[in-house]
Amino acid sequence: xxxxxxxxxxxxxxxxxxxxxxxxxxxxxxxxxxxxxxxxxxxxxxxxxxxxxxxxxxxxxxxxxxxxxxxxxxxxxxxxxxxxxxxxxxxxxxxxxxxxxxxxxxxxxxxxxxxxxxxxxxxxxxxxxxxxxxxxxxxxxxxxxxxxxxxxxxxxxxxxxxxxxxxxxxxxxxxxxxxxxxxxxxxxxxxxxxxxxxxxxxxxxxxxxxxxxxxxxxxxxxxxxxxxxxxxxxxxxxxxxxxxxxxxxxxxxxxxxxxxxxxxx
Length: 265
Hints:
There is one protein chain. The protein is about 45% helix and about 20% strand. By secondary structure, the protein is an alpha+beta fold. The N and C termini lie far apart (about 50 Å). The protein has a single domain, classed as DD-peptidase/beta-lactamase superfamily (Beta-lactamase, 3-Layer(aba) Sandwich), CATH 3.40.710.10.
C-alpha cells in the first residue's frame, strides 16, 4: 500500500509540475521574466483549483517553456478540434501548394469563424481521422485519440497548447495568412474567455468548443497570443461546468492571471 501511495503521489506531481521544453533563460532580464511566468501560472493554477468541475491548463511561454496543471488529463474536444481539421485540410496534397478554391473557402470559413458543425462534418469526411492522426504525430501529441464523432476526439491541454504554439509552421506557407485570418475572425458572441483577458496591444488566434453533456457543460478554449514579437500559447479545458457561462468565467479568470507577464516590455 505504501508503494502504491508513493506511485500515485508521483503521478500527481508529474501532472501539475512545469515541463521545461526549452533551455533555462539566460541573463538577469530573461531570468526575471521567466520568474514572472512561473508566478503568473501559479496564480492561474490556484484559481483553477478552486473552480467547480474539472479544469486543465497548459501554457507555452515566450521562452518555449511549458507550464501545466493537469495538462495530460483527457477531455472530449467539442469544437476545439476544428482548428486541427483546418490545418489537416490545408495540408492535403491537392490543397497545400495550390490556390484555395471557392468551395474550400465556403467550408473552412464558417467552420472556424462561426463554428459551423455541418461544415466540420464535411471537412472531417474529407481529411478523415487518418488526417487528424497524421497531424497529431507531427505535433508530437501524446494524449490524442480520434473517435467516430469528431466532437468526441480525445484531447489534452498540453498537446493543444503545443499545437497552437506551432500552428504557423504546421500550415503550408501558401495558406498561412489565410489560416491566421480565420482564427482572428471569430464572430463576436464566441469571443469570450481568452480574448476578453488579453493585455493591451495583444491579439489572439483561437478556437473554442462548448456543448452540454450529462453532468454539465464542456467548455474549452485554445489560443496563440501575440504581443509585438512575443508569442505564447494557452489551452484551458473544462468539463462538468454547471453552465456554459460558468465555463466562460473559468477560462477568463485563468487567462487573466496566466497572461499577465505578456503585458510587460
